[in-house]
Protein backbone atom coordinates (compact mmCIF):
# COMPACT_ATOMS: atom_id res chain seq x y z
CA UNK A 1 0.00 0.00 0.00
CA UNK A 2 1.26 3.48 -0.83
CA UNK A 3 0.70 5.73 2.12
CA UNK A 4 1.49 9.29 3.05
CA UNK A 5 1.93 9.68 6.78
CA UNK A 6 1.80 12.99 8.66
CA UNK A 7 5.09 14.29 10.02
CA UNK A 8 6.23 17.50 11.68
CA UNK A 9 9.21 19.34 10.20
CA UNK A 10 11.51 19.92 13.16
CA UNK A 11 14.70 21.14 11.46
CA UNK A 12 16.03 22.20 8.08
CA UNK A 13 19.52 20.76 7.87
CA UNK A 14 20.47 21.37 4.23
CA UNK A 15 18.57 24.31 2.70
CA UNK A 16 20.47 24.16 -0.60
CA UNK A 17 19.36 20.57 -1.17
CA UNK A 18 15.93 21.21 0.40
CA UNK A 19 16.47 18.56 3.10
CA UNK A 20 14.85 18.64 6.50
CA UNK A 21 14.21 16.42 9.51
CA UNK A 22 10.64 15.28 10.00
CA UNK A 23 9.37 13.61 13.15
CA UNK A 24 6.78 10.87 12.86
CA UNK A 25 5.76 9.07 16.03
CA UNK A 26 9.03 9.88 17.77
CA UNK A 27 11.15 8.79 14.79
CA UNK A 28 13.16 11.42 12.91
CA UNK A 29 14.02 11.05 9.28
CA UNK A 30 15.49 13.22 6.56
CA UNK A 31 13.00 14.17 3.88
CA UNK A 32 13.15 16.24 0.73
CA UNK A 33 11.00 19.40 0.71
CA UNK A 34 11.16 20.14 -3.03
CA UNK A 35 7.45 19.38 -3.56
CA UNK A 36 6.23 21.85 -0.92
CA UNK A 37 8.47 24.90 -1.29
CA UNK A 38 8.21 27.89 -3.60
CA UNK A 39 8.92 31.62 -3.52
CA UNK A 40 5.95 32.23 -1.21
CA UNK A 41 6.94 29.45 1.20
CA UNK A 42 10.74 28.95 1.15
CA UNK A 43 12.66 26.14 2.83
CA UNK A 44 13.56 28.34 5.81
CA UNK A 45 9.85 28.81 6.59
CA UNK A 46 9.05 25.10 6.78
CA UNK A 47 10.05 24.34 10.39
CA UNK A 48 6.86 23.67 12.32
CA UNK A 49 4.88 22.67 9.23
CA UNK A 50 2.93 19.42 9.17
CA UNK A 51 3.41 17.50 5.93
CA UNK A 52 2.38 14.22 4.36
CA UNK A 53 5.54 12.14 3.88
CA UNK A 54 5.85 9.43 1.24
CA UNK A 55 9.07 7.63 0.23
CA UNK A 56 11.33 10.34 1.61
CA UNK A 57 9.46 13.33 0.20
CA UNK A 58 7.16 15.82 1.86
CA UNK A 59 4.32 15.66 -0.66
CA UNK A 60 2.01 18.37 0.72
CA UNK A 61 1.51 20.64 3.70
CA UNK A 62 -1.44 19.93 6.00
CA UNK A 63 -2.72 21.65 9.12
CA UNK A 64 -2.25 20.24 12.63
CA UNK A 65 -5.90 19.17 12.92
CA UNK A 66 -5.74 17.19 9.69
CA UNK A 67 -2.45 15.61 10.82
CA UNK A 68 -4.01 14.55 14.14
CA UNK A 69 -7.12 13.13 12.44
CA UNK A 70 -5.03 11.25 9.88
CA UNK A 71 -2.70 9.79 12.52
CA UNK A 72 -5.68 8.72 14.63
CA UNK A 73 -7.30 7.02 11.65
CA UNK A 74 -4.08 5.31 10.59
CA UNK A 75 -3.52 4.12 14.15
CA UNK A 76 -7.04 2.77 14.23
CA UNK A 77 -6.41 0.96 10.97
CA UNK A 78 -3.11 -0.40 12.26
CA UNK A 79 -1.15 1.22 9.45
CA UNK A 80 0.73 3.92 11.33
CA UNK A 81 2.82 1.54 13.39
CA UNK A 82 3.92 -0.39 10.31
CA UNK A 83 4.90 2.85 8.52
CA UNK A 84 6.77 4.17 11.56
CA UNK A 85 8.64 0.88 11.91
CA UNK A 86 9.54 0.95 8.20
CA UNK A 87 10.88 4.49 8.63
CA UNK A 88 12.86 3.45 11.71
CA UNK A 89 14.44 0.54 9.83
CA UNK A 90 15.32 2.63 6.78
CA UNK A 91 16.83 5.35 8.99
CA UNK A 92 19.14 2.74 10.54
CA UNK A 93 20.33 1.46 7.16
Main sheet makeup:
5 strands, antiparallel
- Radius of gyration from the alpha-carbon trace, in angstroms: 13 Å
Q: Can you write the helix and strand succession as a string?
A: EEEEEHH
Q: What is the distance, rounded to the nearest whole angstrom, between the alpha carbons of the first and last residues?
A: 22 Å
What is the CATH first-level class name?
Answer: Mainly Beta
Query: How many independent structural domains?
Result: 1
* Helical segment count: 2
Strand order of the largest sheet: 3-2-1-4-5
Q: What overall form do the CA principal axes indicate?
A: globular
- Approximately how much helix is present in the residues? 25-40%
> What is the CATH topology?
SH3 type barrels
- Write down the overall mean pLDDT: 89
What is the subunit arrangement here?
A: single chain
Percent of residues in beta strands? 35-45%
Taking pLDDT < 50 over at least 5 consecutive residues as the criterion, the unreliable ranges are none
Structural class, by secondary structure, is alpha+beta
- The strand count comes to 5
Shape-level CATH architecture: Roll
Amino acid sequence: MCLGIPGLIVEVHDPARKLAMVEVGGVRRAVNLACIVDDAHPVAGCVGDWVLVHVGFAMSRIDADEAARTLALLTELGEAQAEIEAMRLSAQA
